[in-house]
Amino acid sequence: MTDEFDQLGNLAPAPRASDAARTRALAAAMQAFDETEENTARSKGSSWWRRQSSVLNRIWSARMFTQHRYLAGSALATMLIIPTAALLTFELTRGNLPNSGQVTLPQVLDAPKPTAERVPVPTVAKPPEPRQPEAGRGNDAAQTAQPSRQSDFVESDIARLLNKQEASGGAAKRSVAPAPMAPPPVLAERAVPLAAAPRYAPTEREILPPLEESRDRFANADTNPVKSVATDPVSTFSVDVDTASYAFVRRSLLEGHLPDPGSVRVEEMINYFPYDWPRPQTADEPFRTTVTVTPTPWNSGTRLMHVGIKGFETASAAQPAANLVFLIDVSGSMNAPDKLPLLKSAFRLLVGKLKPEDKVSIVTYAGNAGTVLEPTSARERDKILAAIDNLRPGGSTAGAEGIDAAYRLARQAFIQGGVNRVMLATDGDFNVGVSSDEELKRIIEQRRKDGIFLSVLGFGKGNLNDSLMQTLAQNGNGTAAYIDTLAEAQKALVDEAGSTLFPIAKDVKIQVEFNPQQISEYRLVGYETRALKREDFNNDRVDAGDIGSGHAVTAIYEVTPKGSASALNDPLRYGPAAASAPIPVSNEMAFVKIRYKQPDGDASKLITTVVTEMNAVRDFSAAPQDVRFATAVAAFGQKLRGTDALDAYPYRLILDMARNARGEDAFGYRGGFLDLVRLAETLDRR
Is pLDDT above 80 for 258? Predict the structure, then answer.
């Protein structure tokens, strides 16, 4: 801009105008001014205020006359600066590209590798020579601009604008050319579009770790096979009043997966529910047997034989005093919300159920055993609850040492003629000291001879030793329950406290002999872990299960009538029937025998029941309501276990069977079963 002002300042002075010309110019200017004033006086928006543009017009007119040379210089400078700045900005922006001329694409997992396509590099035309300055404008040679690249601007014009020389008064003026600019990068390769969209690849944080393998351990036993009456007419087993399996199956389904088949013990699922079987009339008869024969819903060629046992229910006022020892696992493995915290809440419920004459002791074990509470009367309820609340987890699990300490306390506070019971609460993870099932079984067998029974409450999942819990309960003349919720603790320890704590019979065994003239085959549903040898039935030294006050026990056989096309075994060619003379046909189907001992007795007693067609119903819908519901539970348990006989039987028919037999459901147990069947059907479709 400075050069332009210099050029304007060096112009030759204009010749002086004559007086006549000055007069004419002044007259013309005055006339134009008067015409402007007349136009301004006209009404244009407001009568008392002139248009604001008239003021600007006067100022602009004066400036045009007095400062015309400055305005002309500004306009010329603007014309030169704007194109130059645009060009510089454009070239600098292009200069930020990588010098390699290669555009690098981000790498995408599993995406096809892009291929490059060679394209020709455009050539840049050589700019024309700058024009020579006009005559009289100076003798300086014009500098040429450095060749750059093709653009929207013509390089010859830009060079002329930047290097234009202005001369005045024979003096040549210098012009400054822009510094040479590096040639812009040229895209030598162009990436070909990707053939397919890249596949999403989760980051390492987004990938969920694999589910930890469960370390739950269950007693393994094969499903009972179909047996031929011709070769094996007698079935013998111990009763089972445990309910742990049903609670574990329920937890698995509610967590969204089918249960481990090894965790399904069908008899425990059946016996989870209360049934209103006919009751014994007096305490002299500790229980009563009821047998019902129905068609099999899942096999038209077989029949079901239900054996129901109902124990005598002792009135609460007549129940003897209880000496209870809480043996509580407080090891590190119990440090979970569904273990020690739930355990403490469960025992608080039980303490509220005890009578004033009852006694409570607490022993804990974790690395070593310790006595938390000496034998204390249930009257001191606050003291007992405070001891429970102060329990904390930590350490390894020395279960055998804890069992010894608990039995010592039980003997110390032993109640003659009362109930003396150790209640073990654990996840079953015994990892210090004696830990094998057989060794612990031997210890428990020795202690039960003193009249002290053992019950086991299982907690938690993922490290549950259900197999050990079953071993301890079966050999300790006690029961096993699995506590997965506080509602289950309420059921096991409060609602059913009489049957849980107060036995009416011990070493209860069942033996069924089938008549080969009426029945060709049979299969016992469940009780795989309770099977006994035929000779064990009359051997009073062989231990068996116990029945508590008001307990109901159900066993179901699937039997094949003689001559049915559903028989799986061929008749024997050289069997006893072919060698001996025919015997009179009997209408008896089976003969049921039950042996039991009094809780404080050593000699067993026998109860027998004959099964005939008088016990049968021709239509399944005519069977008692409890029989039909127990059949639905048996079908569900067998299907979860993977029993072949139920493979083709759909869940919806099990659901219909249970729904039609729901009946009175005061505590909602049967309604909960219907929900589990629906869940299993949905989960089995995955």
Answer: yes
Q: Is the dihedral of CA 84, 90, 91, 92 positive or negative?
A: positive
| Cα separations in angstroms, 547 against 221, 241, 419, 462, 597 | 23, 7, 14, 30, 10
Sign of the torsion angle spanned by Cα atoms 229, 232, 234, 238: negative
Q: Whole-angstrom Cα distance, residue 243 to residue 418? A: 25
- CA 299 vs CA 235, 304, 529, 623, 644: distances in Å: 22, 10, 25, 16, 12
Q: In what order do the strands lie in the sheet with 480-483?
A: 368-377, 359-366, 322-329, 419-426, 453-459, 480-483
State the Cα–Cα distance between residues 197 and 195, nearest whole angstrom: 7
**Token duo for residue 650:** 């759909």
Rounded Cα–Cα distance for residues 139 and 171 (Å): 9
Strand partners, 191: 116
- Residue 329 phi, psi dihedral angles, 5° rounding: -80, 115
Mind listing the pLDDT tens digit for each residue in 280-310?
888 778 889 999 999 999 999 999 999 999 9
Which CA distances in Å does 65 have to 9, 58, 111, 491? 17, 11, 73, 111
**CA neighbor of 311 nearest in space, from 290, 339, 340:** 290
Q: Which letter, b or e, does each residue of 438-455 get, where b requires 16 or more Cβ atoms within 10 Å of its Cβ?
A: eebbebbeebbeebbbbb
Tell me the two tokens of residue 526.
Answer: 């469940």
Please say whether the beta carbons of 326 and 362 come within 8 A.
yes
Helix residue spans in 193-339 (DSSP H):
244-254, 266-270
DSSP state for residue 67 in the 8-state scheme: S
For 311, residues 6+ apart whose C-beta sits below 8 A from its C-beta are 280, 286, 287, 499, 504, 505, 547, 548, 549, 550, 551, 552, 553
- Whole-angstrom Cα distance, residue 662 to residue 642? 25
The beta-strand segments (E) located in 268-405 are 287-296, 299-311, 322-329, 359-366, 368-377
pLDDT of residue 281: 82
d(CA 329, CA 161): 97
pLDDT digits (tens, 9 = 90+) for 25-48: 777 777 777 666 565 555 444 444
CA distances from 630 to 274, 356, 471, 673 (A): 10, 38, 26, 11
- At 685, is the secondary structure helix, strand, or coil? coil
d(CA 557, CA 555): 7
pLDDT over 80 (residue 106): no
**Residue 549: CB partners within 8 Å, gap ≥ 6?**
311, 312, 313, 314, 319, 498, 499, 502, 503, 504
H/E run at residue 420: strand 419-426
| pLDDT exceeds 70 at position 682 | yes
Residue 526: name the closest of 266, 245, 351, 177 by CA.
266
Classify residue 492 by its DSSP letter: I
The tokens for 664 are 């009175």
